[in-house]
Design a protein that fits this description.
- The protein contains five helices and seven strands, in the order αβααββαββαββ.
- By secondary structure, the chain is an alpha+beta fold.
- The protein has two domains: 1-137, no CATH class; 139-173.
- The strands form two sheets. A five-stranded antiparallel beta sheet has the order 1-3-2-4-5. It has a two-stranded antiparallel ribbon with strand order 6-7.
Amino acid sequence: MARMNALKRSYPYVGPADLRATVRPGSGGHRIGSAADFAHWAAERTAAELREPFTFVVSTDGMLRLAPRRSEHVACAGGEHVLSAGEISFTREADRWVVDEVSNQSTGYCPDVVSWPAVARALDAIELVRPSGFTHPVVFRRCPGCQEHNIVREDDFVCVFCGSDLPEAWNVESDGRC
């Protein structure tokens, strides 16, 4: 599993095995590699769809992949490792699309907040105006005691399942499940 450094880290799927088992080769979210790809993709969405956030991943080739919000991140990624994952929403400002909100909320991949540069590069490559970081960052940790995945809220690094202290450094991949 690639760890290299924070800028090159890829995240394996760490969610339920039964969800991963449903992913078929060649599935995956809609690959967005250019501004034209994004414009074409957006033109195919209804106004109601565009008001909702979308599931996204940044694949290991640096491409943004999009799927409907209620899609599983592992399906959007085609079962592969990702550089980041979460939810993203877009809005029109004047004559262009911009990223309205973006988070790393993915309990299937539990990406660290340091995955933002991969998201920024993918959005910059398709010429979308974006925020300077996750608008809703999520801090994931695996409990060393009970092994459960946790979302840390308000800097309270305590496991909600067993009360053990959670590490300050991201550690989700270290449980060996993928």
